[in-house]
Write a structure and sequence with these properties.
About 65% of the residues lie in helices and about 0% in strands. By secondary structure, the chain is mainly α. The chain has a single domain, classed as Oxo-4-hydroxy-4-carboxy-5-ureidoimidazoline decarboxylase (UraD-like), CATH 1.10.3330. It is elongated and about 50 Å long.
């Protein structure tokens, strides 16, 4: 979709177009409300600022749409398709790295109560494993802020891809 098309969609269609990027109603409504955008850069900046800060409820809702990193998203939803595309870019890693990432994912989930979320684009599985290990040492409040930042980055990248 092009920016001019997004700017001219009715409210419901514009909201539906945004939801696969981030299923947070306040974020979607904020982006729809600020139309028309003069440039994609302006839309992306609004996307970053509208998603700051997230509430705990918004983070939990958004996390429910993300599979464990390293696992293939199931289903035929737009969110699942985006996730599969993002994780496909990770490439192959040896079985040792995959097994260690699986363990780190499970340890993270046990510690924080939700999936480990990280922007996969531009990162290798080894880098993601290193980040998972680092973030396991975070206090819960610091980790919540990191999760929110990763959600923002993922949403902005998805939105940018939608408008490419």
């Amino acid at each position: 979709m092009e920016l001019t098309e997004f700017n001219t969609l009715d409210r419901a269609s514009a909201a539906a177009a945004l939801r696969p990027a981030l299923e947070v109603r306040r974020w979607v409504d904020g982006l729809v409300e600020h139309r028309p955008y003069a440039s994609t850069a302006q839309l992306l900046e609004t996307a970053r600022s509208t998603a700051d800060p997230f509430t705990d409820e918004e983070i939990d809702r958004a996390l429910s749409h993300h599979p464990m990193i390293g696992r293939r998203a199931e289903g035929d939803s737009a969110e699942a398709e985006l996730s599969r595309g993002e994780q496909a870019s990770l490439g192959d890693a040896d079985e040792t790295v995959r097994a260690e990432l699986e363990r780190a994912n499970l340890e993270y989930q046990e510690r924080f109560g939700h999936v480990f979320l990280i922007r996969a684009a531009g990162r290798s599985l080894s880098e993601i494993l290193s980040e998972a290990r680092r973030r396991l040492t975070n206090p819960p409040e610091d980790e919540r802020r990191e999760v929110a930042e990763q959600l923002r980055q993922i949403a902005v990248l998805r939105l940018e891809g939608m408008l490419a």
